[in-house]
Amino acid sequence: MNVPPSTASPIRGRARQRPGDRIFSGMSTGAGVLILVVLAGVATFLLVETWPALVAPTDEIPGDSGLAVYIWPLLFGTLLSALFALLLAAPLAVAVALFITHYAPRRLAQGLGYLVDLLAAVPSIIYGLWGANVLAPATVPTTDWLSENLGFIPLFAGPPSATGRTMLVAVLVLTVMILPIITAVIREAFLQTPRLHEEASLALGATRWEMIKMAVLPFGRSSIIGASMLGLGRALGETMAVAIVLSVSGGITFNLISTGNPSTIAANIALEFPESTGIDVNALIASGLVLFAVTLLVNMAARAVINRRREFSGAN
């Protein structure tokens, strides 16, 4: 049967868009551009306000040692607390997400999922109060034992703090704060694992753990990395919890249990900004610019890792 040429020929040209489609497309594009404009505005503001501190004499910068010397201990404390918190939170988040998605009974898993989401909604100042008044005193016997038995390790060199308001407690508080964020993202990624992959692994004789290792974890690898970077960004910018918990004395040290604790950039800005004037304000904003750059680099690195895994999907 011959088909008329008018019906056999392919439709040429682009389909005509409806007004609603054009409006939605324009709003989406505008929202994306607005984000870039806001980001550029924040960066411009930080650069403009940082410039007076960059050209100011060394003796006018807080500490009388120059801007780099002023910011470096704060940056060190920020990275130290955030990285240790991530090292503790990421494996625990993967374990919790696996338990909720593949081991716990359905009703228990649903309740645990709600609990994890609720933990993410707790204000940071509540975590700070809990860390300073409950967790810090409770860690004093532990830090004494660590100093006596593991004092040869730089992290536990001591002498231990009598109040417990140490970098170790700040790390533990940050771990609890970023744990629900990482867990929620990883949990949703594990739930998206193709059921066909899981059933095929089990049909070939794999145990539940072998199935998880061969099907679930490879599928969720990029989400694990992305969620970890998201948690790291939260830990880098945390302010009130660290400011309440940490007993700051300045300096650079890897000792987590002593009274000498470096502050973080965000906590230092929160504590010092209300009473600062003149060039001191510019120095604080300069430290904020450094934190902004570090956070931006972390998010760019996470995006690069996720993009490398974009081609992997359940259909492959």
What attributes characterize this protein structure?
316 residues; mainly alpha; MetI-like fold; phosphate transport; Phosphate transport system permease protein; cell membrane; transmembrane helix; MetI-like_sf
Name the helix and strand elements from N-terminus to C-terminus, one letter apiece.
HHHHHHHHHHHH
Ends apart, CA distance between termini: 39 Å
Using the coordinates shown, work out and report the CATH topology: MetI-like fold
Low-confidence stretches: 312-316
Q: What is the number of strand segments?
A: 0
CATH architect. name = Orthogonal Bundle
What structural category characterises the helix and strand content? mainly alpha
The portion of residues assigned to helices is over 70%
The CATH superfamily is MetI-like
Task: Estimate the mean pLDDT confidence.
Answer: 83
- Name the shape in a single word: flat
CATH class: Mainly Alpha
Total discrete domains:
1
How much is the radius of gyration in Å? 25 Å
Strand content: under 5%
User: Largest beta sheet, briefly?
Assistant: none
How many DSSP helices? 12
Family: Belongs to the binding-protein-dependent transport system permease family. CysTW subfamily.
GO molecular function: phosphate transmembrane transporter activity
Main location: membrane
Domain ABC transmembrane type-1: 75-302
